[in-house]
Structure formats: structure tokens, C-alpha cells
Amino acid sequence: MTTRATRGPRRRTVVALAVILSVLVAFVVRLVDIQVVSADEHVSQSLTKIGAGDTIPGQRGAIVDAGGSVLASSVMVYDAQLSPLVITQLEEKDPKLPWAEASDKIAAITGQTGDDVRTMVADALAVDAKSQYVLLKRSLSTDQYIALKELKLAYLHFDSRETRVYPNGAVAGNILGFLDSSGSAQAGIEQMGQECLAPTDGEESYRTGANGVVIPGSERTVPAVNGGSVQLTINSDLNWYLQQMIAEEAQAQGAKAGTVTVVEVKTGKIRAAAEWPALDPNDLDASTPETRASQIFHRDFEPGSTFKAITAAAAIEGAGLTPLSTVSAASRETFPNGAVINDAFTHPAYNYTLAGGLIDSSNVALSKFGTMVSPDVRYDYLERFGVGQKVLDFPSEVSGILHPVKDWDAQSLYTTTFGQYYTVTAAQLAGAYQAIANGGEKIDLSLVESCTAADGTVVDSAAPKHERIIKEQTAAELTRMLENVAVQGGNADRIQVPGYRVTSKTGTAQVADEVNGGYKAGVYYTSMVGFAPVDDPQYVVVVTLDEPTKVVSSAATAPAFQKAMTQVMKTYRVMPSTVPMDELLPKFG
Questions:
Q1: Residue 84's domain spans which residues?
Q2: Would you state the pLDDT for residue 49?
């Protein structure tokens, strides 16, 4: 029999169970809502708790020369800071290494004096007794960083950063280019080779709870991928010598600038690109924006007499001329359309051979030979030899100017036969003579050999284009005439390279007056180009001087050309000429 006394506890138990069951049901409903009904929403909220983590920087790739010598690389440097407050606190506690002694040890590593270090800390404390920051020294090397760390000083701290260094300074500096303060490539190979050189940064990421605590197992690391290494065709040792030489020669001639370009005949590879003034990418403040670009690719000029050889090529193939074809040419003549053409020296009417016109560099003779073919034919040959076209799309490279035939007036109809009314760069001039030296086959010039990825994969540059632009026989006749220029021309004694048969042709171009129009009076851009050895051409050398003032004619370039060609033959151990020169070609018929 149930009594009132027993009903009370039982009822309370049922009520308690009902409450507990209701709470459990509520929890289950809520759990279902969280994990099923609103799961997507809560997952989305959880993802907002992923920490950004830390970027793992990759290292920019190196630039090396043809032999593997490093021309540009990225290194880790360290900026060291001191905490004056911690220094004073430790001094009060009888430190193991007193500040007076520690500061001397620090200074011995950083290249400062102990007094310098103590003074900077004292000055900081004088301004703020609780100062916790003084910049000790920027850009410390890894060795200096390790030496300072080994002192185990609690008040010494470091920030690391990557910086670009150029071990050979200004050697090929204008070709290498540079990075700005943010690490962005601004010029040269640094910019041209960005796709290969640039690293891919990695990242460390993780998830955190609402309180910011990292959730175990949520850490994720994407490793950085270092940039690749760009190998150039440049020989840095040769480039160094030629830079020293052209700097001396340009200054000796009172010139504003000078360049030397060396191209390998059978490959089109640029083996040297020397310039003065030269850019040292380690010290941009020592240069100006005008001198940072490579003048070999950036500066165009009228080639002058160096392109008389191209006129001769057009006349040989287009009009059936030979080196012994003749015209009568005085030093000043008025042509049927009223154009007046002058030679650089006064002389009566000579019966010039084509070879003789090149040897004496007669503008009048070449005007007559050149106009034996139509302007359209001559325009075609100028295009074939690369006028008006970039050589390799180098940063800031210009294409030069080649006016269409319809724009040629009475005067330029003739001046285009001797290198005026169009412009080229030193690189284009080198490319034109590479074709002559290579038997009439033009090979696109190249500056980059390959890209080697961080994993060792080597990707060679695309094979250069080969194109026959003149007949092999035409190239042989041009070569013979250009050797006669070297032997019989006005610079013959100054450009001889003992043991080697050499070709040469000079150019003296007027300089445009950008302010007043026309040309500057008595100011010239001089050049000399040639290749050697004649019996087996290996290298083309181009020398330019911008506005020399001591000798204003192209003779100013002769000493530099001779030194450059001699050094190139030595550097590559080119065998001396073994086949004697053919008999001299007559200048007059």
C-alpha cells in the first residue's frame, strides 16, 4: 500500500528525471542544430579564425657569367639593435660582462669603436631614460651576426633581411641592372630575367580558437621556392679589362662616354659589353638615371661610314658590281636632283673602284655606287642587316630609326648610302658585321645562356634565329674589301694586331641637336667595327666614343679598337692567321 510518505520521494524523482530528460533533449536539439542544421555557417565562422601565419621568403637567384663566376647574388644581412634600458638594468645587477667591456667587444666585431657604441647608448638614455631601442649597425654579415650572438648579451637583438650584392662591382653593371629599395627589378638582366630569378615565397599558417590559441594539428607549411640562376654569355674577365681600357681611352679623348661590344661570329653570343661611365649596382647614388641604362642597347646614332659596307652589299647583289667596278668621284659634287654631297677631304675627280671608295671612305663615290640600285632595294638591305629592329628586346633597348622610302628627300636619297638619315645601336652594328664575318648568315645576338632552377633543372635559352641575308660570295668580297680598308686606310698603322689579319671600318656621325634642331657643330659620335682573323673570322669588335674632343674624327677610336681586338684574341687563344692576305685591291681603276 502506497502511503503519502512514499509518494513524495517518488514524485520528486520523476520530476527530476523529467527535468534531466528535458535538458538532454535541449542539448541534443542544439547539437543537431550546430552539427547538422547550421553546420556550414559554423564552419565558415571557424575558418575566419585561421591565422595569417608567417611568410617564408624565398631567395632571389644568382646571375653568373659564361664561366659560372657570380655577378649578382642575394645574401642575408642583419641589422643589430641595442636596448639601453636593459643595459642599465644589467649594470645594476653586477653583470657577467660589464658594459664597458661588452661595448668594446661589440665594436671590434661591427667595425666601430667602443666609444662610438657607448656614446650612442648614452645619447639615447639622455633623451629617454627608459629607451629600449638604438640602431647599432645595419647590413652586418652572417659572420658578424654569429660573432655577436656568441656574446650572449640580452640587450642585443637582430632583424634579418635579404639584400642584393654584386661581387664584381661595376663589371657589366649596366648589363646586370639593379633592384630598387623594395626589391623590384628595375633594369638590365635583373628585369629581363625576372621570370627565372624571382623566388616564390612560402607560408606558415594555422588555425586558432576564439581566444587566439593555436589549434593543435592545424599548422600548415608551404615551403618557399628559391629563384633560378641566370647564366650569361658574358666573359666577366674580358669585360673587366675592356671596361678599364675604354674608360681610359674615352677620358684621354675627352669623350662623354665610350663602349666596347664583342660578339662571337659563329654563335652570335655577346662575349663582352663594356661601358664608361659604368654603373656599379652596389652604389646607385654614384650614378645618374642617364648613365644607368646600357648605352650599347639604349643609345642610337647614325652609323656613318661603317654602313658603307651594307651599301656595297646591295650594289654587288642588286647591280652586279665587283670590288673593281668604278665611278668617277670628286670631293664635292652636285647631283641631278640638286643634292650636294661632300667627302671629308678635298681631292680631284678620282676613278674610284668600289674597294677604293671604301678605303678612302668617299661619300661621293658610295652615293654613285649605291644609287645604281633602287631606294627600295637599299631599304631592303638595311632591314636585312637589322636596322630599325631591336636586337634582343633588352630593357630600355631602342630599335633605331629607319625612315620609309617615301620619306627620303633629294638629299637623303644619297646620304642613306653612307650611313645617314637612319640610326642604329652598337649592338645592331655588331650584329650587321657578324653576318658579313659569318659568310652572309646572320645569327640573332644573344646575352643569356640558360636558367637553372633551384632544383637543378636547366632550361637553355631558345636557339637563335639563323638567316642568310647575302650570298656567301658577297660576304667574301666584302670581307676582302674591309681587310683592304684595315691595311690601306688612314688608321692602318694604329689598328694592326700582330699575327692576325683584321678587317675594319670607321664611322663618324653627326650628333643631333635636340634643342635647336639639326646637328651640333663640330661634334661627332665616332665608331670603329671589324672582325678577325680574316682567314677564319671568330670575333666582331665594335668601339664607340660619344663626342670625343681631342680627336673628333673616327681616328679617336683606333687605339681602343686595337687594344680591344688584341685582348680578345689573347683571351680566347685564337690561332694567328695562317693564310696570307690576297694582293691589295687597287683604289683607282
A1: 75-161
A2: 47
